[in-house]
Amino acid sequence: MRRREQLAAGLAATRARIAAACTAAGRAPAEVALVAVTKTWPASDCALLRDLGVVDLGENRDQEASVKAAAVPGVRWHFIGRLQSNKARSVAGYADVVHSVDREALLGPLADGVQRAGRQVTCLVQVDLEEGAEGRGGAPAAAVPRLAERIATTDGLLLGGLMAVAPLGEDPAAAFARLAEVAAALRADHPGATAVSAGMSGDLEQAVAAGATHLRVGSAILGLRSAPTG
Ligand SMILES: *Cc1c(COP(=O)(O)O)cnc(C)c1O
Question: Does the beta carbon of 83 sit less than 6 angstroms from any atom of ligand 1?
Answer without folding.
Answer: no
